[in-house]
Amino acid sequence: MKLEHVRVDRLRSVLHxxxxxxxxxxxxxxxxNSGKSTLLSAIQTFFLCLSEGEVVDLKPHLGKTIxxxxxxxxxxxxxxxxxxxxxxxxxxxxxxxxxEAPQLKNAVDGLDPNLLLxxxxxxxxxxxxxxxxxxxxxxxxxxxxxxxxxxxVSAASAAELYTKADSLQRSK
Length: 172
Fold this sequence. Notes:
This protein is α+β, with helices and mostly antiparallel strands. The chain has 4 helices and 7 strands; from the N terminus they run ββαββααβββα. Strands 1, 2, 3, 4, 5, 6 and 7 form a 7-stranded antiparallel sheet that branches. It starts with a strand and ends with a helix.
């Protein structure tokens, strides 16, 4: 799996930023306070939130009021990473999806092997601070083609997932 594209919305001083065409070696150059560290922190947070393999992270690294652009917590911070995956990884992922959610089998059958895997992490501060996978999709490298959404979680569903995950965590 190789990181190809990063999109960050509403994080600190970054209202919207995209890093397309990420290569094997990248250098971030810019003036102080231009958002370089914010973008790196977003990528780190993405991987930290998903490192346990859960859809909901009850204690994300980011998400304090100060982390939201203009301290506006009404909209979530969004971090989207797109990955190119080789055929073996793609086939394994599609098998897992079909086993875990058989109703999605038709949605993933026949997907173009050149599509990128897009995962969007949303971080909210209400009712409590938590992060969740809000969208999983396959997208073309060229933006003009539509995405094939595999999973999309609404804010209301995310709040319910948070409540259940928090309750489960407390009972442990």
